[in-house]
Amino acid sequence: MNEVNKTLYIPLYGKSFVSRQGLILRDAKAEEIWDSESFELKGKSKSKWLAYNMAMRARVFDDWTGRQITDAPDAVVIHIGCGLDSRCLRVTQDYRLWIDCDLPDVLTVRRQYYQEDSRYRMMELDATDTGRISELPDSGSAIIVMEGLSMYLTNVQLNMLLTALHRKYRSIHILMDVYTVFGAKATKFKNPVNDVGVSEVYGVDDIDTVLTGSGLRMTAEHSFTPPDLVDELDPSDRRIFKMLFTGKTYRKIYRLYELCGE
To answer: How many Cβ atoms are within 10 Å of 9's Cβ, its own excluded?
Structure first.
C-alpha cells in the first residue's frame, strides 16, 4: 500500500481499541483484522486519545447512516474510501444494497475479511477518477459516506467528485469530514498520518465554494464528539479528551458536514 492507504490502520486500531474496552462502539471485525494484520503504528497514531476520537467519529457516521437508511430504505449506500472499516456490519438497519469502494490494493486486503453477496459488494474506485462514478449501480437515491477521505483531495478534485456523484444520483445525502485550511497546515506538525508517511493534506474553509456547480447544499454541521459518547469515558480520561478534541479550537481544525441534493 502507498502512504495514504496505510492511514486506514489508524482508525482500524482506534475502533479495535475501544471495542475491546466495551466503549463507544462494538466492532468485533476491527478486533479480528487488527490482530491479523499486525501493522506497526507508532507515536500519536497509537495514542488512546486518538483511538477514542476515531471511534467516536465512526459512531457518528454509523448513526447518521442508519438514520438515512431508515428514511430511504431503497437508497443504495456507498462508502467511498472504506479501507477495512466494518460499517456495513455495524449498521443494523436493513439496507437494499451497500457498495464499499477503495483503491485496488486496499480491496485486495479487504477481500480477505469480507464476503460479497446480493446486498453487499466491493468496487475499485479512485476518488480522483470521477469517470468511474458512472459505473456505480443505478438508483433513484444514494447515501454517500466519505469518512477520512476529503483531506487527500484538492478542493478542485473534491468538487469534481461531489459534482459527479450528484449527476449520477438525483436524490443524494452525503456525510463528509474535512480539515479546515488551518487544520491542514497544522497537520504538518502534529497529525498522526505523518507517522505512516503522509506529508500532504488539504483543507476547506468555505464549503459553499467547494459545492459550486455541484447542485449540492450543506444542510447541517455535526459534532465528532457528542456529549453522550464523551460521557462513556472514565472521568479522568474525559477531562483530558475534552481539552484535546472538543470546543472551538477543535472546530477550527476539523468539521463534519452533511450535504444534500434533490
So the answer is: 22
Q: pLDDT, tens digit, for every residue of 197-240?
A: 456 889 999 999 999 999 999 999 999 999 999 999 999 999 99
C-alpha cell at 202: 488539504
pLDDT band at 156 (very low <50, low <70, confident <90, very high): very high
For the stretch 182-207, what's the b/e string if a residue is b when 16 or more beta carbons lie within 10 angstroms of its beta carbon?
ebbebbeeebbbbbbebeebbbbeeb
DSSP sequence for 29-58: HHHHHHHHH-----GGGG-HHHHHHHHHHH
pLDDT digits (tens, 9 = 90+) for 12-71: 999 999 999 999 999 999 999 999 987 777 666 678 999 999 999 999 999 999 999 999
The CA distance from 148 to 8, in Å, is 9
CATH number at residue 169: 3.40.50.150
189 is written with which cell numbers? 506538525
Q: How many domains, the chain?
A: 1
The reported pLDDT for the residue numbered 1 is: 44
Answer yes or no: are the C-beta atoms of 83 and 74 closer than 8 Å.
no
Q: Do residues 79 and 87 make contact, with C-beta atoms less than 8 angstroms apart? A: yes
Cα–Cα distance for residue pair 196/199, rounded to 1 Å: 9
C-alpha cell at 200: 500532504
Q: Which domain holds residue 223?
A: 3-261
Grid cell in block for residue 62: 454509523
**Which residues, 6 or more positions from 127, have their beta carbon under 8 angstroms from its beta carbon?**
80, 81, 149, 152, 153, 157, 161
